[in-house]
Amino acid sequence: MMKFQTLTSPASCLDRDDIDTDQIIPARFLRTTERTGLGAHLFEDWRYDAGGHPKPGFPLNQTGANDARVLIGGRNFGCGSSREHAVWSLLDFGIRAVIAQGFADIFRKNALRNGLLPIDVDAADHAACLAAAGAGRAFTIDLEARRVMAEGVAFGFDVDPFARTCMLDGVDELEYILKHEDRIAAFERER
Prior knowledge:
By secondary structure, the chain is of the alpha/beta class. The chain has helices at about 20-25, 45, 85-95, 105-115, 125-135, 160-170, 175-180, 180-190, and strands at about 5-10, 10-15, 70-75, 95-105, 115-120, 140, 145-150, 155. Strand 4, helix 4 and strand 5 (about 115-120) form a beta-alpha-beta unit. The longest helix is centred in the last third of the chain and has 12 residues, at about 125-135.
């Protein structure tokens, strides 16, 4: 997992409610357990027409969208099935944080375990984020301080403390445990 400390990036807006995991990565692309290559199929059915050509009106097909590391969604982002591939496809595309008005529980857990930061916001902060992104303003997300900032935007956010520690250190749960292997072995010897 890559470290996540401070991220400064433009944002892409996909202001739709109930974006489910089958829309994020359609089931027909779930034939792999590899985390790479899925970004090409992120929002496949929304991004491309029947001939495989990019739809010009889709936000991730806009100029500069490949530089955006922040995605702004609507309410209930990541609902539907529990597929971890949805998180992998966002990360493989380059998205490191999603700002939305709520996340499905399983999606949130999968995101945090894989280094994708889900930021839950209220309606006012969501509207401010959409306005800032629409104006092309860069967002700065400081995970240490748990703050999001852009011109016209400034708010704090909550994140699971253990997940935050893992993301700041760039380790998954197993790597975190292995960092303490000496202490674990000493504890076991004493018992």
